[in-house]
Amino acid sequence: MSAPLTAVALVCSLKPSPAESSSALMAEHICENLRSAGVQTESVRCVDYAIAPGVEADMGDGDEWPQIREKLLGADILVLTTPIWLGHPCSVTQRVLERLDAELSNTDDDGRPVMVGKVAVVGVVGNEDGAHKVIADCFQGLNDIGYTIPAQGGTYWTGEAMQSTDYKDLDEVPEPVASTTAALARNAAYLAAALRTGRYPSYQ
What we know:
Pfam families: FMN_red. The chain is of the alpha/beta class. Helix content is 36%, strand content 18%.
């Protein structure tokens, strides 16, 4: 019997633990649905770590990205959640994507970048416009790095523009958001299982 699928959620909130975070809550809602599909999950709030700027796998003394990287290398699915700030993914998200860029030159015995064959999904929260753009920006970066994006692999909630209500303030998740998140998780688990048994062709 094969080992269960695994997922790591990188929460790119600007708020360190234990502060409440809409991005963390979105990650948990995605992970709940993944667990229902038989996937083991773990969440990491990136701002709790000292992630140095750069595009190398290890930037040297004090850089804690290698701890996160090891989790990603062992996972089948990456869940990336981010708030919208000034119409873009937040700065923590951009730093994560920049550090993942190192994996383009980290290849397996068949010449494939090591993230090829892994699945990535994105969750976005905010109270301003831009969710589709932020998802598209993240998808482009993750796909360049080698991740495969499942059908309907993005989910989001945005509140009324220029107001103070956040995702974490909702009494109940709106049904369209909940159903989109559930579809994301089902499709991600299905695709990850398919890629585990049917690998991409050799690059050599």
